[in-house]
Amino acid sequence: MTERTRKEGRERGEEWWSTEIIEMRPGMIRLRGYPIEDLIGRVSFPAMIWLMLRGELPTEAQASLLGTALGAAVDHGPQAPLIAIARMAATCGVGINSAMASAINVLGDVHGGAGEQALGFFGDIAAAMDAGQSLEDAVADRVDRFFARSGYVPGLGHRFHPVDPRAPRLLELVREAARQGTVSGRFADIAEAVEAAVERRKGKRIPLNIDGATAVIYGELGFPPPLTRGLFVLSRSVGILAHAWEQSQYPDRNKGPLPREWLWAYEGTPERRLPEASEP
Which Gene3D superfamilies match (predicted)? Predict the structure, then answer.
């Protein structure tokens, strides 16, 4: 029997959910060691996110760049499945928290996971460069590998925008942060080299999208890929909340995905009747 399993009573209970994030007793709250009253009014929300996830406070420039990425991805309209779900849920009379949860629960690999995939892809290229490969060779090898496997590269292209209007501005701010020494600019270099490699392969430019651009920022700031998805959830929750609240102010009830006069295409078995139903 280990020392841990021998412990009983209060000591065992206190260790059950051990954490390095928060210390709390009656009249005292400390986040990563900082008294909450010291943080309130002095530390921005992006800096609080950084502190909670990373254990240390960022510089103001780092917090600003993180906030920029979070702010850029807050919404993309009701045609996005999660926003449509939030609005439909609101018409069903559920609370705003339930509408938000319904929307967040559809964020997975296909819808919401591209940023994580992009940062994993960029990070793999960075690791190859650390192992001695040139930027061009590392990018070419991995672009070829991705095309062979899936036919696309994460973080590029958009089904609505020929050029995602958010991406160039985010890359511009990354370059500015690199000039100021806040970040290295390495992930921006990788993303632009990936764009160029894909253009050579396909014969047309497929620009960086919001997922790729925010992945650049999160990579520059040192966040691991899995946290990228969580950060996207935090960001898009702002839009989810806004849409759920707006929809809750309208009188619509049980509003489905299509107007009532538009019905779905039925492709099943033609009409058939039970024998007893056709008898006089």
Answer: Citrate Synthase, domain 1, Cytochrome P450-Terp, domain 2
Element (H, E) at 9: helix 9-16
Over 77-140, what HEC string results? CCCCHHHHHHHHHHHCCCCHHHHHHHHHCCCECCCECHHHHHHHHHHHHHHHHHCCCCHHHHHH
Same-domain pairing of 27 and 166: no
- Residue 30, helix vs strand vs coil: strand
| Distance of alpha carbon 142 from alpha carbon 155, whole angstroms | 14
Based on the fold, state whether residues 228 and 192 are members of the same structural domain: yes
Residues of the chain with pLDDT under 70: 1-7, 278-280
| pLDDT of 278 | 66
The reported pTM is 0.91
Considering the domain architecture, whether residues 247 and 162 belong to the same structural domain is answered as yes
Per-residue pLDDT at 3: 61
Q: Are residues 140 and 186 in the same domain?
A: yes
Determine the Cα–Cα distance for residues 22 and 19; give it in Å rounded to an integer.
7
Tokens representing residue 12 in the block: 């065992």
CA 107 – CA 111 distance, rounded (Å): 5
